[in-house]
Amino acid sequence: MDLNYTKAQQNFRLEARAWLTAHVPAAPLPHFDATREGFEAHRAWERTMHQGGWSVVSWPEEYGGRGLDLIEWLIFEEEYYRVAAPGRVNQNGICLLAPTLMEFGTAEQKARFLPPMASGEEIWAQAWSEPQAGSDLAHIRATVIQDGDQLVLNGHKIWSSRAAFADWGFGLFRTPGSERHKGMSLVFFPLNAPGVTVNPIRKMDGHIGFAELFLENVRVPAFNRLGDDGQGWHICMATAGFERGLLLRSPARYQQAAAKLAAHYHAQGNDADPALGLEVARAWMNAEAYMLTIYAMSSRLLSGGKIGPEASTNKIFWSELDIHLHRTALALLGARAELTSAAAEAARDHDWLDGYIFSLAGPIYAGSNEIQRNIIAERMLGLPR
Amino acid sequence: MDLNYTKAQQNFRLEARAWLTAHVPAAPLPHFDATREGFEAHRAWERTMHQGGWSVVSWPEEYGGRGLDLIEWLIFEEEYYRVAAPGRVNQNGICLLAPTLMEFGTAEQKARFLPPMASGEEIWAQAWSEPQAGSDLAHIRATVIQDGDQLVLNGHKIWSSRAAFADWGFGLFRTPGSERHKGMSLVFFPLNAPGVTVNPIRKMDGHIGFAELFLENVRVPAFNRLGDDGQGWHICMATAGFERGLLLRSPARYQQAAAKLAAHYHAQGNDADPALGLEVARAWMNAEAYMLTIYAMSSRLLSGGKIGPEASTNKIFWSELDIHLHRTALALLGARAELTSAAAEAARDHDWLDGYIFSLAGPIYAGSNEIQRNIIAERMLGLPR
Amino acid sequence: MDFRFTDDQLMMAETARKLFAATASSAQLRAMLAKEEARDEARWSTIAETGLTMILLPEMAGGLGLGEVDFALTAEAAGYAWLPEPLVESAGIAAPLLAAINPSHELLSNTARSLAIGPAINPYVADADTAAALLLEHQGATYLRHPGEVKLTRQQSLDPFRRLFKVEWEPSGTPLSRDAALWRDALDRGALFAAAQCTGIAQRAIDIAVEYAKTREQFGKPIGSYQAVKHLLANAQVAVQFAKPVIHAAAASCAQRDLFSRARISHAKIIAAEAADLATRASLQVHGAMGYSWEVDVHFLLKRALALSATWGGPGFHRNRVLTRLREAPAGPEYGFARAGV
Amino acid sequence: MDFRFTDDQLMMAETARKLFAATASSAQLRAMLAKEEARDEARWSTIAETGLTMILLPEMAGGLGLGEVDFALTAEAAGYAWLPEPLVESAGIAAPLLAAINPSHELLSNTARSLAIGPAINPYVADADTAAALLLEHQGATYLRHPGEVKLTRQQSLDPFRRLFKVEWEPSGTPLSRDAALWRDALDRGALFAAAQCTGIAQRAIDIAVEYAKTREQFGKPIGSYQAVKHLLANAQVAVQFAKPVIHAAAASCAQRDLFSRARISHAKIIAAEAADLATRASLQVHGAMGYSWEVDVHFLLKRALALSATWGGPGFHRNRVLTRLREAPAGPEYGFARAGV
């Protein structure tokens, strides 16, 4: 065990810091879920990142990455959050789909889809859930039929993050008549393809953020299926592992917020409610514990380990710490906590209220925390189903 | 709504206060679960109470009570806990069995069992659980067979509170071959009857407290069955309502402890951890909320209401507040918290550690809190079973 | 000692509940939001006509001369409906303050007008622009201003139905009153009725979650049959059950205006806000992604609960009042209702 | 940057675990308790022979010259076994303190002897009577006393295996050392290894609850198939998962002896004690009445967890160290491991 960065890691950090300091937009971009303008501003930022070689640092160089390992990826993320750089509008693609694509895709598929993903030219939405299949993903009904070298998609998807403005969607479809985990395929489709209707859904924060998708005889090349016919569930579970387990929420995100929170608390001096010191310390400890656990897990993965059901412990931990951290910030803000960022007197240093509302979705998406607890109990502890 | 005591209620309080002040033993009695001596000291206290007319204040006068209503009972309990009077060794009889007996018993049964219960001459243990039937009480296997004017009892009971030293037990038995809620009878049996073996069980605090009972062809008169053959489940559920709902845990118990806790906290002055102020306030608020809710419920019952599934909300609330209150006290004691009352330097003003250990059983007995939450969800909220 | 409501009290509460159910349904409130209306004049008129704005006004001011218990039940119903109009702040806090100074004040004669209130403890004033007048606190004194006499700057709350304003004004001229005790009373009523609204919000959040959990199926069963869902909602219901009697007792003793009654009010404010937080978040979790969308009502409840928890004193302020009571006066079983222990 | 244990570290930990499993089973500990023995001399000898008491001693004191990471894994295993002997306090804290003063001290030469330690932060000294000597703190100085030179008064802990003593003594004569920094180091190690024991305790509590929940049936199903039981134990396991890396990182940086390493140790102490509390109470609840009986092991774990949480600094003490670090040094993503932000 050696918890010091190597000289090379330190140099890499400084290189990332220098580039980010020089390129991160001075003013925050408008939210990518709020308007087309915000979305395109984030796409432009992806392009800038790509030009600098920073958009997909952990990918192989042939697809636009730097071939960095998980520790270097964590260092990059630390620098990224340190300067409060913009949210990653193509996260669904880069963090969720790309690892799956690299594991299960053909060379041709990788060559076709990864480079425009890295450059932000093609931005991806996920399309997992359906109205009757949320936590119970095996219950999906959307269908895929092969017709020569084409696939014909039909169905109704919902809660598709980014789908209001994105270019491509990836989702699960099943062979008609198949049941539960069998007969599923993971298919990519352009969101502007004939037969696709995108109905934006407003979130509780008023932003659009996700959409409902209706697919009516949408035709895509058979090339757009990842893996073989019927392999969809297996592939999708691998993605879920990445999503919950490691790549969805960088520890740096919470470390940065916790540091802000602590500064805010200490700036209140003697006026601060001493009972809140407890929560501020807790918020920082949670962020650090998450960071340390992810570093430990990354070290293990680097030497050939696999993410198992402990991915579910990560999901529970980051989603709960995020809520706690933001609740504590709102408590510090007192009666001003309810002001939105549109209000003249809203807290300027950090979007605590937006962060709180966003955090409330954490225990729900990427597999509800109830489901994660079942997974921990059954697969880690061995309790009966 | 009038939340002032009447003159008569005030006078009753002062009368109770005067008697208790004059009669409550100056030194705490040895624990009734620890030794036969402690048990008998508590029996003697029951006798003293009875002689003063205070042992069963809410019972009808003909059985040794004062016929007081629920509000007066609450006032009496407040005075009782105010002077930290001894624990009630016959609580299983007085608070659990007696209300059931008064509702379902014949005049002869009441005349036989209530007076010696009131005087402490006969002290009662409950005998509900069996090794395979804890939360799932309908699963009990102990049997009762009628043989002429006698009942023959067989079976294995466990977790019988007070049974190590008590005189009588009451428990559920079923007609052989009957299933689930049917064919059950509530039967009383002397713990020294031939065929009864009492094996004391040590609790985690080292005291004995409960026992395992083996019944082998134990013969009691048919007179000892409460209600008709097969009515046992119905009667038992009524008892469970009393137990969880109202009579098991007086609010005064927690009000007294919370007041001690607050005094302890404020006595620490500036040395106290300010974050603990939060918990001290919480402990007092919990005790007051419980008190107010019980008063509101008592008012409703006095005008003819019945205890329904909200009994389950009471059980959850008092069991959780009790743990919280004692945890807070242990936190205030710091590194001295682990000392038992046998230690020279143990906290003298209140048995916080004993209270904490006792409180840990709260979410388990009288129907586990998991079962109570099911009841609330299904019977109060109407969620599907 | 009688903890029951009178028939009159129950009837008044039922009237409020029915009125809100009929005039302030989710669909009606959403339609009003779409039209960007500050208030629904028809609903407000009906509220005034029904007498709900007159509960706490003394009879010599043309009011019903009732007490805080009566109004608390109305506030609970208003919370249940997440009513946008300023019934609670105007009729529950501002009007009684003005009536305490001058029961014949002409602003009290028209019960369809609303009053806004700006105590030192709240940084913003709700519904200041539509009010007939603002009652403002400065160093314990009461000043009356018309909206046109002050500078109002809208501050957007996350609750789209809450219309907050920063008020800039000079405490010049003679105040209506210099009695600082009036503002302590106003704070008590403000906290008390915010608490009452919170239990209404909490119950509504539970009720809609229960309805959803009965019908929404996952893994072939209604989600309400899973223990995780049952226990989440059961815990929220427990919190509501043990908040309501505290609010009712706090309302009944509000007029005592002492260490004991203020601790009771603070207690009510703390736990009712917590119950609302617990219940709205449980409701959100039970609704899943659906609950996170604008189309399901749970977010309106969650936002109102968040706003109310920090208004009229946050948890820290009220906890200090509880600790002060515990430090300065005896506690224990004999002090539950009786200040002198009898 | 490598967060993995070396093969040597893993092997040493495995040795400790196997030794404790073989010599300190529940039955063996209960038998020892029945005989009212202070310690099991055979077990203690085996522990010493295996080298576990020499992990932290420098090579010039005849030790293995290993670090806190190595010993933390042993302490975790000791917690899992709720070991009665003073391995952690003697070999993990007292001996390194003495070795730091004088690595050739003759008390270090016999590794089968134990040392007791009395820092100012703990009111009582564990296993003082069976120790070869006591190391006692007075105003930052270190005094050495033999048990016969001080007045020992047994103080009964709720944990029947913890043998606490009040020590009355005079700080007369020349201390072994006046360097107060030694006691700050001792406190760090004390808190760190208490934390490590706590995660062991927590994992044991979960493991026995899981075994019970697999076999105990109610309502026709194993209780472990109910969500209420699953989620209770899953939450406890989450707490353990996120405590262990903090302990390991705290152990790895312990030698830094600065604001950063001390905050990490305090963090570890707080959350490991909480994990042990959560897990032992969850285990108790899962066991039902059975868990409340003396016959099931859960109470031994619960008691040890309770005792350790307040020893070597309680939550308030350690929280203050965390807040001090946050006040006095920068925080943020670049300061996770790097004091200078690189």
UniProtKB/TrEMBL annotation, chains A, B:
Taxonomic superkingdom: Bacteria
InterPro entries reported in the protein's UniProt record: Acyl-CoA_Oxase/DH_mid-dom (IPR006091), Acyl-CoA_Oxase/DH_mid-dom_sf (IPR046373), AcylCo_DH-like_C (IPR036250), AcylCo_DH/oxidase_C (IPR009075), AcylCoA_DH/ox_N (IPR013786), AcylCoA_DH/ox_N_sf (IPR037069), AcylCoA_DH/oxidase_NM_dom_sf (IPR009100), Mycobact_Acyl-CoA_DH (IPR052161)
Keyword Repressor: no
All residue ranges annotated as the Acyl-CoA oxidase/dehydrogenase middle domain in the record: 125-218
Domain Acyl-CoA dehydrogenase/oxidase N-terminal span(s) in chain numbering: 6-121
Domain Acyl-CoA dehydrogenase/oxidase C-terminal positions: 230-381
Keywords: FAD, Flavoprotein, Oxidoreductase
Coiled coil start-end: none
Pfam families, sorted: Acyl-CoA_dh_1, Acyl-CoA_dh_M, Acyl-CoA_dh_N
Cofactor(s) listed in the protein's UniProt record: FAD
Claim: NADP is one of the keywords in the record: no
SUPFAM superfamilies hit by this protein: Acyl-CoA dehydrogenase C-terminal domain-like, Acyl-CoA dehydrogenase NM domain-like
Homology family: Belongs to the acyl-CoA dehydrogenase family.
Name of the protein in question: Acyl-CoA dehydrogenase
From TrEMBL, chains C, D:
Domain Acyl-CoA dehydrogenase/oxidase C-terminal residue range list: 185-323
Keywords per UniProt: FAD, Flavoprotein, Oxidoreductase
Keyword field contains Flavoprotein: yes
UniProt entry tagged with the keyword Oxidoreductase: yes
Gene3D superfamilies in UniProt: Acyl-CoA dehydrogenase/oxidase, N-terminal domain (1.10.540.10), Butyryl-CoA Dehydrogenase, subunit A, domain 3 (1.20.140.10)
A family per Pfam: Acyl-CoA_dh_N
Swiss-Prot/TrEMBL cofactor(s): FAD
Stretches assigned to the Acyl-CoA dehydrogenase/oxidase N-terminal domain: 6-88
Coiled coil: none
Family named by the database record: Belongs to the acyl-CoA dehydrogenase family.
Name of the protein described by the UniProt record: Acyl-CoA dehydrogenase
